[in-house]
Amino acid sequence: MKPSPRWIASHRRLNPCLDKLPECTAICKKKLMSLRRKKAMNKSVIALLILGSSLPLTICAHAETGDHTLPLRTLIVDALNTQPSVAIASWETEMRHQETNMSKASLYPTLDVSSEAIHKKTDEHDNEQNVENKLTLAYRIADFGVRSSNISKSEQQEEASKYDFQQELLTTAQKTADAYLSVEKTRQILAVIDDEKIFYKQMLNDFSELIAAGAAMQSDIRKVQVSIDSLSTQELNFRAQLDTQLMMLRNLTGDNVTAENLGKLPDFFNKYLFNTDKDAVYKKIMQDNPTYLSLTKAISAANAEYSAAKSANYPVVDFNAHYTDNNPSKDAQQDDYEDELQVGVKVGFNIFNGFKNQSEVAKFSAKYTQAKLGLDDFIFKTRNSVDASVSKYMTGKDSLAISKRSYENAGKLIELYKEEFKLGQKSLLDFISSRNEHYQANLTMIESQFSIYQAKLEQMAQLADLLHELYLEPGQIQPKSGSMSQ
Fold it and tell me: Is residue 484 part of a domain?
């Protein structure tokens, strides 16, 4: 109902603001429209923030696309077939095998044939010529353990070389897997950074409207720009790391590895049960670790070499037989060149050779002691390595649990700030701060998860399980035989 002129006149004296009623009404309408625009803009900001906050949740679900991906198993096989160190270890086993055959050859008799033309001048004949053909058979009957010790030494060295070859396979596979994990971790971190930059850049584009609506201030723009610059700096550092890691993978495998064609993370990294019982790990290392087994064979070889050196002080007994067929010239005295057969047993004993035997005994005694100390050194280093792996795993496991909880809490904090932002109790700067906590927790989760993977990889190498997890056997590896320097 419209008020009467008399009512307005009577109340104008009591309330002078009524003269400005049309102006006040216009101002109120303007503020109401501004408030509505601000509320609508706040909703768009909140929607953008919530959309952005959900992006990092999908980064770990890396899908393998295309037919030209390089899974970890392929990379490791290529590395094992490419690396010269693997080929060197392989040829070492062949060399040691032939040395064993050479040592065993001393158990067999030797048969030699020779032919010699002789010309001599005597008082009775000016020219005496003879062609002497000789067939010699020799066999060592006894040497008091020298041959058997040398054969044992060669056999032990051959076995040690086989274990060294297995260890080289493990070492190369571990290096390749370690480089792969580094690439995968960096790739996931870069995905998180890219998502954050997309969010902040979108926010920066919308700030002109936010400022006009009064939903943001210049300080908010600065904060967003600082966040973008900080993310860009981190991205540069991580991309440099990624380039280095990819180059290492290329050098190891000979493959054209890129961040795009790298295969997905194998399931065994998640399925492998890490053994935190240090004593059980030590015990299994003493049973299966190739380096430990190689060092025990090296001790046995050094002991056999020491025994052979001591046995050299005893006499040797040889059997010798030779037949000589002479073919003298006609003018030679035939009785002087009769055919001859000799059979005999010879006993030899060295009385003095300048203390050579004593020096060899002392030398191989020192070598035997050195071999035992080498095993002790390995055990000492292994204990440190096992302790470090278990500590890394436990720390990574605890850190992962904390970072997951922090990630979830940061997500809930964003939801709370969203409601408070609607009510005008929080600023956009508060939203950005809560999102940064969410981002840092996400990075910590990735670091912790890959720390666990690294610890598992170390234990698989320590226990010689890595190739088994990849369904690889030493016989499947065919190292290159050519030299790059040729």
Answer: no
Q: Exposure pattern of 243-265 as b/e (b: 16+ CB <10 Å)? A: eebbebbeebbeeebeeeebbeb
Instruction: Evaluate the CA torsion angle 449, 455, 459, 462 in order and state its sign.
Output: positive
In order, the DSSP letters of 263-316 are: PPPPTHHHH------HHHHHHHHHHH-HHHHHHHHHHHHHHHHHHHHHHTTS-E
Question: Which residue range(s) make up the domain with 220?
Answer: 33-107+145-312+356-476
Question: In angstroms, rounded to a whole number, what is the distance separating the alpha carbons of residues 406 and 369?
Answer: 55
Q: Please give the pLDDT value at position 124.
A: 63
> Given CA atoms 188, 193, 198, 199 in this order, what sign does their dihedral have?
positive
Which tokens in the block code for residue 442? 């996400």
Which of the four pLDDT bands, split at 50, 70 and 90, describes residue 339? confident
- How much is the pTM? 0.80
CA-to-CA dists, residue 142 to 110, 111, 301, angstroms = 15, 18, 22
With tokens 């037949």, the residue in question is 323
Whether the CB-CB separation of 183 and 249 falls below 8 Å is answered with yes
> In 3-state terms, the chain is what percent helix, strand and coil (to 5)?
70, 10, 20
Give the model confidence (pLDDT) of 414-466 as tens digits: 888 877 777 777 766 777 778 888 999 999 999 999 999 999 999 999 999 99
Task: Examine residue 472 and state whether it is found in any structural domain, yes or no.
Answer: yes
Q: Which of 268, 270, 250 is nearest to 471 (CA)?
A: 268
Question: Does residue 352 have a pLDDT over 70?
Answer: yes
**Under a CB-based contact definition with an 8 Å cutoff, are residues 390 and 451 in contact?**
no
pLDDT given at position 16: 44
Q: What is the CATH number of the domain that holds 342?
A: 2.20.200
- Say how many Å lie between the first and final Cα of the chain, rounded: 107
Q: At what angle do helices 146-213 and 21-53 cross, to 10 degrees?
A: 170
- Both 455 and 378 in one domain: the answer is yes
- 229 and 278 together in one domain: yes
If you ran DSSP here, which 8-state letter would residue 262 be given?
A: B
Would you list the DSSP string of 386-420?
A: HHHHHHHHHHHHHHHHHHHHHHHHHHHHHHHHHHH
The whole-number pLDDT of residue 122 equals 66
User: Confidence class of residue 337 from pLDDT cuts 50, 70 and 90?
Assistant: confident
| Beta bridge partner(s), residue 118 | 130
Q: Which residue has the tokens 């990624």?
A: 242
The whole-angstrom separation of Cα 81 and Cα 255 is 12
Angle, CA 302 vertex, CA 298 and CA 306 arms, to 5°: 170
Q: What percent of the chain has pLDDT over 90?
A: 62
Residue 426 within a domain: yes
What are the angstrom distances between the C-alpha of 434 and each of 214, 242, 343?
A: 21, 28, 101
Residues in contact with 177: Cβ distance below 8 Å, sequence separation at least 6, in sequence order: 72, 76, 457, 466
